[in-house]
Amino acid sequence: MSTSRSQLKEDVERAYAVQTRSGIEGALHGAAIGVGLAIITHYTWPFFRRQTFQFKGFLVCTCTVFGLIINAERALQEYESMRRLEENAVRKEARRDLARQGIIPTETAITKWRKNRSGEGKDYH
């Protein structure tokens, strides 16, 4: 049980690292877009030029936070999708192997199959 908990903890840490890295990249892209748009709009639109510096900063911060959130969420969903595909492939292999041995592939049998596959156990029953 501790092995699965440690694997789960490692998986959570990897997901956190992926989300953090992607969030930072998204924030930087969003900030660059926000600053660029603020500069262009400042020089091309008189109404925007009359706005306060704080309001312009607020708009840039909004772009930054939007980029952070969208990128972090997208990266986490891609990571979860990849992990789900990997898990489904392992479970499919376990079901096939257990069926060949004449064992009904229940959750318990699949767990024992995984332990046997990693060299921790020998018995399915």
UniProtKB/TrEMBL annotation:
InterPro entries: Rcf3. Keywords: Coiled coil, Membrane, Transmembrane, Transmembrane helix. This is Uncharacterized protein. It comes from Mycena pura. The chain crosses the membrane at residues 26-45. PANTHER family: AGR244WP. It comes from the Eukaryota. Residues 69-102 form a coiled coil.
